[in-house]
Specification:
It is a single chain. This protein is of the alpha/beta class. It has a single domain (5-222), classed as P-loop containing nucleotide triphosphate hydrolases (Rossmann fold). 35% of the residues lie in helices and 27% in strands. The strands form two sheets. Strands 6-7-8-3-9-10 form a six-stranded mixed beta sheet. It binds adenosine-5'-triphosphate and magnesium ion (MG). The site of adenosine-5'-triphosphate has 12 residues, from β1, β2 and α1.
Length: 223
Amino acid sequence: MTPILQLANIRKDFAQGGQALHILNGLSLSIGPGEVAALVGPSGSGKTTLLQIAGLLAQPDAGQVWVHGRASEKLGDAERTKLRREKLGFVYQFHHLLPELSAEENVMMPQLIAGRAKAAAANEARRLLALVGLSARLAHRPAELSGGEQQRVAIARALANRPALVLADEPTGNLDPETSASVFSMFRDTLRETGAAALIVTHNHELARSCDRLLRLEHGRIV
Ligand SMILES: Nc1ncnc2c1ncn2[C@@H]1O[C@H](COP(=O)(O)OP(=O)(O)OP(=O)(O)O)[C@@H](O)[C@H]1O
Ligand SMILES: [Mg+2]
């Protein structure tokens, strides 16, 4: 089966004060359809850099990225944006919800951008918010939701265009341990329910071990 994400021999350097930092050093990995993988590694090891490259938001200095079997280096800007919009979903440590929109409208937004009709987008938003247990909070704005609830809205939003792959950068990193564990398991179960694959950065090894696969980033490679 074609992997949903494949990285081969990725290198990424950052020049800092005349010195080259080798952050990703010939890194390779492959994620299959529906596979939920956790990514752990020390602070500064390059996890966010890796997600940005996998999400087609940054270019590697060398190596190749395939999303759904398509080689990203051959794509123009418009095609790259289209591939990102159609195949990928993103969840960040701080949810980045739009403050003036309700939970339902926040989950509708990426669908409207992708061209879905308003009524269909609203239906899908309500279905996803029900999956993350927020049916009773549809009209709440982010400021009227708890931290864990805001993060659950962000998870529903990431799934709104039925991505084949969700990239999540410490999606529960700003929550207390108990809320973090419950939001994380809800996230994992929702991914399984929708069949989306995921690469989830987390500092919590217990949560990481509950995924299908545990990837460790060290010295610029997956070990
Ligand atoms: N634009 C940049 N310019 C220079 N150095 C950078 C840049 N972006 C990242 N770095 C460096 O690359 C290294 C990896 O950064 P990255 O954000 O990927 O780490 P991380 O594994 O996500 O860490 P954390 O767990 O703290 O979020 C860091 O040492 C950082 O200083
Ligand atoms: Mg990071």
